[in-house]
Design goal:
It holds the Pfam family PTSIIA_gutA. The protein is α+β, with helices and mostly antiparallel strands. It has a single domain (about 5-120), classed as M1 Pyruvate Kinase, Domain 3 (Beta Barrel). It contains three helices and eight strands; from the N terminus they run βαβαβββαβββ. The chain has helices at about 15-25, 35-40, 75-80; strands at about 5-10, 25-30, 40-45, 60, 65-70, 85-90, 100-105, 115-120.
Length: about 120
């Protein structure tokens, strides 16, 4: 697999960890996250995407791989432009919203400042 994206978590919104536990999702956003969303986001350092995100690829968080099961129609556009995607930790094979990336999880990720988020195709 080829790495197409890598970013470091630079800050963690106050409500971001509870989104993982309660809603089975996490939100990545670049440094310019709107104030009303910042509390729910993991802010990332980079938004440079060098390839296509596809089903069968992997989201890797701190070395732990999660298979990509569905990709919303604007995931790549939002990630490249804003550093923003919603990651649903539900393993769904059908995308729910255009900006949502779905992955299968066996253990919920525990992101923190300096966590590394990567995408592989």
């Amino acid at each position: 697999m080829t790495k197409i994206f890598e970013a470091t978590i630079v800050s963690v919104g106050e409500q971001a960890p509870s989104m993982i536990m309660e809603a089975n999702m996490l939100i990545l956003f670049g440094m310019e996250a709107p104030a009303d969303l910042a509390d729910y986001c993991y802010k990332i350092s980079n938004k440079d995407l060098s390839g296509s995100i596809r089903v069968g690829g992997q989201l890797v968080i701190d070395g732990r791989a999660y298979p990509i099961t569905a990709v919303g129609s604007v995931v790549e556009q939002n990630l490249s432009a804003l550093g923003h995607i919603t990651i649903a930790l539900d393993g769904s094979s059908e995308g729910s919203l255009p900006g949502t990336l779905h992955v299968a999880v066996d253990k919920m990720p525990e992101l923190q400042e300096n966590s590394i988020v990567q995408l592989f195709a």
